């Protein structure tokens, strides 16, 4: 089968990752002669599923429409893709990783990623990943006879959303059985429930998907300084990130830490819309991850870190 599935998370509206993966799935499906099929979940999924056709989905299966732990949709997702397919594209976010891991465990399918490119050529699926701290590129493909679909974790920005006038057909996944009556191959995954929700956790997810990152370091000076950066991020439609020094100082939660030891490693993640940096040092660590924009920072004076188009103070 040549269907290309993708995970589509909703929080009232489709997440940026859902738009990206819908476009990517549609492209792969065209190359393979198949269809892009979305697996939608989260608040607003039922009402907004058809809109995924805007980004190339031909069909969408709604796994659930409530604010439930994403892992509770694992059994329904496994049932939807059990008959095979070319690939299941999953976002390299906390929720995407959870569901992707569940699919590998429940179905015994191969997994790749996080990847920065996926293509279908010579009749085979190929996934391209950056390894050894970005010094090497690895191209992998499922072995002959491997069950499908292959699970592919895609980094943010792997695909660029492309809108059209399409509309996807929508169906509802089979109702998952309860934890008491479901079989052992997924029923227990329906048991988790949300006990408490933390705002900083949501911010971390936003940071991983952000198109614009406004980052701060020791030079910002205090949590009040980061409040000002948050205002700038809000105005730009982006997210705030911080250096390890700022997180260690208690000015921001560790969920907002970026860099080699943080949530977003700039050597592997590019914010297509731009990266604004305030009060950080370490240009040689930041430079490899910002190929499309210029960074200026008020440590030892304002100076560029990258040599592409810039936004001055």
Q: How would you characterize the overall build of this protein?
A:
The protein has eight helices and 13 strands. It is α/β, with parallel strands linked by helices and 313 residues long. It has two domains: 4-190, Rossmann fold (3-Layer(aba) Sandwich); 199-289, Rossmann fold (3-Layer(aba) Sandwich), CATH 3.40.50.1220. The longest helix has 17 residues, at 16-32. The termini are far apart.
CATH architecture of the largest domain: 3-Layer(aba) Sandwich
CATH superfamily of the largest domain: HUPs
CATH topology of the largest domain: Rossmann fold
Spans with pLDDT under 50 lasting ≥5 residues?
A: 176-186, 287-313
- Main beta-sheet annotation: 7 strands, parallel
User: Class of the largest domain, according to the CATH hierarchy?
Assistant: Alpha Beta
**CA radius of gyration:** 20 Å
Order of helices and strands: EHEHEHEHEEEEEEHEHEHEH
State the separation between the terminal residues, measured CA to CA: 53 Å
Quote the beta fraction: 15-25%
Total count of domains: 2
Number of strands: 13
């Amino acid at each position: 089968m040549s269907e290309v599935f993708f995970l589509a998370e909703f929080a009232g509206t489709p997440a940026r990752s859902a738009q990206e993966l819908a476009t990517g799935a549609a492209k792969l499906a065209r190359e393979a002669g198949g269809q892009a099929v979305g697996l939608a979940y989260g608040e607003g999924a039922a009402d907004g599923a058809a809109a995924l056709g805007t980004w190339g989905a031909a069909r969408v299966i709604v796994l659930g429409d409530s604010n439930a732990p994403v892992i509770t949709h694992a059994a329904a997702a496994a049932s939807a893709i059990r008959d095979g397919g070319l690939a299941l594209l999953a976002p390299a976010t906390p929720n995407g990783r959870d569901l992707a891991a569940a699919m590998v465990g429940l179905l015994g399918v191969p997994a790749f990623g996080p990847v920065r490119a996926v293509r279908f050529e010579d009749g085979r699926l190929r996934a391209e990943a950056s390894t050894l701290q970005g010094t090497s590129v690895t191209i992998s493909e499922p072995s002959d006879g491997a069950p499908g679909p292959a699970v592919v974790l895609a980094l943010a920005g792997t695909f660029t959303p492309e809108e059209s006038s399409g509309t996807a057909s929508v169906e509802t996944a089979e109702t998952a059985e309860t934890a008491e009556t479901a079989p052992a191959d997924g029923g227990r995954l329906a048991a988790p429930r949300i006990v408490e929700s933390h705002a900083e956790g949501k911010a971390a997810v936003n940071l991983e998907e952000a198109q614009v990152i406004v980052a701060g370091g020791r030079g910002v000076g205090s949590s009040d300084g980061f409040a000002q950066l948050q205002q700038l991020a809000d105005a730009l439609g982006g997210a705030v990130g911080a250096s390890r020094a700022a997180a260690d100082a208690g000015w921001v939660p560790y969920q907002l830490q970026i860099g080699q030891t943080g949530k977003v490693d700039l050597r592997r993640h590019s914010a297509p819309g731009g990266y604004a940096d305030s009060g950080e040092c370490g240009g040689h660590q930041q430079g490899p991850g910002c190929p499309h924009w210029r960074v200026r920072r008020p440590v030892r004076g304002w100076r560029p870190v990258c040599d592409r188009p810039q936004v001055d103070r």
